[in-house]
Amino acid sequence: MSSQPIRVGLIGLNKSDCWAVNAHLPYLKDTSRYRIVALLNSSEDAARAAISSHGLSSDTRAYGSPEKFAEDNDIELVVCSVRVDRHYPILKPILEKTTAKAVHCEWPLGKNLAEAEELTKLAKSKGMKTILGLQGRKAPTGILVKELIQQGKIGKPLSITITAIGYNFGAADFEALSYLSDISIGGNMVTIHFSHILDTVTQAVGELSSYSVVLDTMRDKTMLRNKPFTYVQKSESDEPVKIVGEVPRTSHDQIAIQGHLENGAVFSFHMRGGHPYPNTAGLDWRVYGETGEIRVTAPSANLHFGGPGHSVQVHNHETNSVEEVNIPQDSWDEKKLPFTARAPARVYEAFADGKEHEYATWDDAVQRHRLVEELYDRSKNGSTEKKAEYTSRL
Amino acid sequence: MSSQPIRVGLIGLNKSDCWAVNAHLPYLKDTSRYRIVALLNSSEDAARAAISSHGLSSDTRAYGSPEKFAEDNDIELVVCSVRVDRHYPILKPILEKTTAKAVHCEWPLGKNLAEAEELTKLAKSKGMKTILGLQGRKAPTGILVKELIQQGKIGKPLSITITAIGYNFGAADFEALSYLSDISIGGNMVTIHFSHILDTVTQAVGELSSYSVVLDTMRDKTMLRNKPFTYVQKSESDEPVKIVGEVPRTSHDQIAIQGHLENGAVFSFHMRGGHPYPNTAGLDWRVYGETGEIRVTAPSANLHFGGPGHSVQVHNHETNSVEEVNIPQDSWDEKKLPFTARAPARVYEAFADGKEHEYATWDDAVQRHRLVEELYDRSKNGSTEKKAEYTSRL
């Protein structure tokens, strides 16, 4: 690889809190392998405010329109971190014009399969490399589970059991995330929370070969609160959390999927919206094998982040002992990058190293969107779930 | 009711350890409402040995043949507690001849639906009352969950999540229970462990209205050990546990079922054979509701026993507090009957009190056998589980 930093045009860096700030910026500001040369925001002013707020180089170009951004021939890598329904309208004009050699977009890529397919086709027609923000591929927890299985620590896997909570999708959500409840936006518990977990899990245990699925919306509306769940009232002068509205929920807050993996293991996964039961793991993932069992726990659905609070244990059936396995640390842990930025940092490193098989691409986005469509279809037509007859025949 | 004790003819009381000894005898010996007047064992000698071993009245009649037992016109209640595949050949000749007014049999009644239907029809044709040993109907844990829901403690139930282990059906089983691995016997993880849990759970939350199911045998053989899992080597002179053989396993060691209840709640239940992960509940049953969540934990699949080690908690979403709810005690707890005998004691009491809706009958046995057949059918023909196509289309 060139010793020159890869020149990044970053889309969606707010001046304050957002995913680009939490997941992309910490690494990009820290590394000599990449350099942010341009920002695209909702307006040039917003882009300039972000450049100033984050102390980016004063020669960073500020754009307010995708067309102008696309004409910047100095950009080598386009990075898109905006709300999912804006991927397509922003990326399409950029991909049509840009001379950049690569494009990196968060998962879900576009709000549905059609958008993902069109964007992927467009990027391929331009010969661009693609990166997808399914960061779980580079999250140490899933990689460790894969290695433990390959090392024969539990023998042949016989069954997978996962229970998880969404944190969002309960009785109330943060108003800035109210769009999660609108299924037409494309960002929701199925596409984001469930898909990230499934992608992280399946890289370790193998893909689904057959399944049936239940998707349901048990709360058809959600209240909106004016503060995120992380908000803690520090003093009496702090304004307490208020309910500031209510929106209908058309996206799903219940997902149950069961079936088999390609290796034959039984697979069972139930995820519900809402907060975890106190003092229990928000995510509990078991791999029960012939000679032992792996148990992964995490405080929430964020298995693809790599932490904090992840635990990986192995129960050895013969000795009946439980071993806590250390999750490997790397320089991004040592540098104490925010957890949300560590797996993305590893993705950036893998791309810079040309290790294409270590990160997800837009082909994977198309595959994951196909699963999402399959889940929607199967849960709607009910062909996989028959009426129970045993209760009415007496 | 008559103040005279109900005269019981008990089938299957060994001189030492067995289900009749553990679940039926402690109550029957303790109560003034029933009196054991006759035993039917594999031989008259075996029946006499049991009478002597358990200190039953010396005028207790001993029988070695169902036909002779059936001619005992003093028996009012026939109680059958033998291995499931012996229910039909023993009960059929008895039901044809007996003058008893009632019959009590353990679940599963007979080894399949056909046997249960025939026995039920026969009992009805004789005008006999029937009792079924689905003791979970009188186990305090399930009853308490039902009451908590009815009291509105968690609002409308939105989803049910159950994970459970079978204890049996792992890599090795106790040799005396090797028949559990042979599906043709009719006693296995689906008919016994799963069905008892499901019956106990559904009385609290409502019946399934639709579902898909995965049944699998992931270990196609099991080793046999010469001691039960409860055996603990007390001194070096004790013989340690030995593997004394191996049998094929044709019954299932994996059950995954998901769907909806009649009240609309999502239902997800995964049960695997083998021992629990150390320091976790062998059974974890959640009822997630609009305003709170009930969590029931038990050390094993024996939810229908009522203990020991059961815990029922309620998480209140608004206060974020968890309340441990005391499981109501009654005289059978106070008398410290073995746990296995307390729910059966309550069934006997309900029958003596004429409270027909408080215990399961053979109609329920037919219904549960229909479910078991439905599970077998659905899991075999695969109509409820479609091949995943998303992995092969790139």
In short:
By secondary structure, the first copy, chain A, is of the alpha/beta class.
What does this protein look like?
- The structure is a homodimer of 394-residue chains.
- Chain A is of the alpha/beta class and 394 residues long.
- Chain A is built from 10 helices and 18 strands.
- The longest helix of chain A is centred in the last third of the chain and has 20 residues, at 362-381.
- The interface between A and B is large, with 67 and 67 residues.
Task: Give the low-pLDDT segments of chain A.
Answer: none
The helix content of chain A, as a percent range, equals 25-40%
What's the CATH H-level homologous superfamily of the largest domain in chain A? Dihydrodipicolinate Reductase, domain 2
Order of helices and strands of chain A: EHEHEHEHEHEHEEHEEEEEEEEEHHHE
Assigned CATH architecture of the largest domain in chain A:
2-Layer Sandwich
Instruction: Look up the CATH topology of the largest domain in chain A.
Output: Dihydrodipicolinate Reductase, domain 2
What sort of overall outline of chain A do the alpha carbons produce when their principal axes are compared? globular
Described by strand count, sense and barrel closure, the largest sheet of chain A is:
8 strands, mixed
Lay out the secondary structure.
The structure is a homodimer of 394-residue chains.
Chain A: E1 6-11, H1 19-30, E2 34-40, H2 44-53, E3 61-63, H3 66-70, E4 77-80, H4 87-97, E5 102-105, H5 113-125, E6 129-132, H6 140-150, E7 157-165, E8 172-174, H7 189-205, E9 208-216, E10 221-225, E11 243-248, E12 254-261, E13 266-272, E14 283-289, E15 292-298, E16 311-316, E17 321-325, H8 331-334, H9 339-352, H10 362-381, E18 386-387
Parallel strand pairs in A: 1-2, 1-4, 2-3, 4-5, 5-6, 7-13, 8-10
Antiparallel strand pairs in A: 7-14, 9-12, 10-11, 12-13, 14-15, 15-16, 16-17
Helix pairs in contact in A: 1-9, 4-5, 5-10, 6-7
